[in-house]
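Page 47, continued from p. 46.
Same chain as before, 137 aa.
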Amino acid sequence: MGGLVYYSSATGNTARLVARLGMPAARIPIRPADPMPVPGGPFVLICPTYADGNGRGAVPKQVIRFLNDPGMRGLLRGVIGCGNRNFGAFFGHAGAVIAQKCGVPCLTRVELAGTEADLARLRAGLTTFWREPCLTA
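Result:
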């Protein structure tokens, strides 16, 4: 099975989601001075959305920095967008932006730290995803 890499701001919703998933994961740091994680192989990125009312700025700068490294980007196999449904059409928009720019699937979207149903769906979906051959590789 592949790995998880995630970004979580100081609010910690995405960090709580990942902790509750109970799967090994590496965190992209909040502070630019901190070292970036180095995935040991293919990974799925879990990324919250930070967009204005027009969808601009959806992907956090640290995630952009991480994905600007061709080695990291080359291991990306899928993305899960997180956010708040209050964003309306831009709920989980970072997932769609990253998927389009990196040519990988946006696997799903999750609100805030997720519900128990979200966690069960994510665990099952990730297990299936890593078993299936990835056409984007």
